């Protein structure tokens, strides 16, 4: 699906680990989805995480991952200006370093750091724009 200067694709039929999901997105010419604003988060929620698409039961991998210094970085290299962490997140537990977006209520659209090895649906993004130098208002 195209939105603004980006194309998005939900992969819900085959679930993969974060690393395998990212490799799949890169093979398609993109990366795991990065989200730069509240508006983009809303778009992803409405387009892909509705009860119709994932039936409100799953989480989907996105491109955010914890680094060795404890900071988070998008896999596509875009700066992190916006986050939508769920309550108590990121929990930063030892085995949790990759981020997924919730499809189920009551946490619909919030983000969760979780174990990178867990197989989940995932959202790819091809961006035709350039990374912003500062947050979008």
From TrEMBL:
Gene3D superfamilies to which the protein is assigned, alphabetical: Mannose-Binding Protein A, subunit A (3.10.100.10)
Ranges in coiled-coil conformation: none
Occurrences of domain C-type lectin (ranges): 3-125
tRNA-binding listed as a keyword: no
Domain of life according to the entry: Eukaryota
Pfam families assigned: Lectin_C (PF00059)
Keyword annotations from UniProtKB, A to Z: Disulfide bond
PANTHER family noted in UniProt: MANNOSE, PHOSPHOLIPASE, LECTIN RECEPTOR RELATED (PTHR22803)
UniProt protein name: C-type lectin domain-containing protein
Organism: Salarias fasciatus
